[in-house]
Design a protein that fits this description.
Keywords: Iron, Iron-sulfur, Metal-binding. One of its GO terms (molecular function) is metal ion binding. InterPro entries: MJ0683-like. The protein is mainly alpha-helical. It has one domain. It is 57% helix and 0% strand. Helix 2 runs antiparallel to helix 3. The longest helix is centred in the middle third of the chain and has 17 residues.
Length: 120
């Protein structure tokens, strides 16, 4: 789910649709991330935005004063993600999912690490 482009792909309907579909196909965890803009990429990106997404250009320019989205935008965005994680019962930590999966794997009967010397 990366990168999320502020003011373009971060709408409530868009994000909710991704979470809803992820739940329907039994995804365990969603890792959202915001777009970062460094060096010449930032210049090229804003040129494309100015031509293709005129209505979002000023908001994006204000959000990306540096190479990353502003702290205020980040806070609002990740609050939205927290609400969606709760609504769709996703864990908010990938470590939680990994620990559970590892535990499930370790509890399986007859699990044995294969080696190069196993005969089939």
């Amino acid at each position: 789910m990366i990168p999320i482009i502020p003011h373009i792909t971060d709408g409530d309907y868009d994000l909710d649709s991704v979470f809803k579909m992820a739940k329907m196909i039994n995804v365990n965890y969603i890792l959202p991330g915001l777009l970062n803009l460094y060096g010449e990429t930032k210049t090229h990106f804003f040129r494309i935005i100015k031509n293709s997404f005129k209505n979002s250009f000023n908001d994006l320019k204000n959000t990306y004063i540096s190479s990353k989205a502003s702290k205020i935008y980040n806070m609002k965005f990740y609050n939205k993600i927290t609400i969606l994680n709760k609504r769709y019962d996703f864990k908010d930590s990938y470590k939680t999912v990994l620990d559970r999966k590892l535990n499930e794997f370790n509890l399986k009967d007859n699990t044995k690490q294969s080696t190069l010397f196993d005969t089939f």
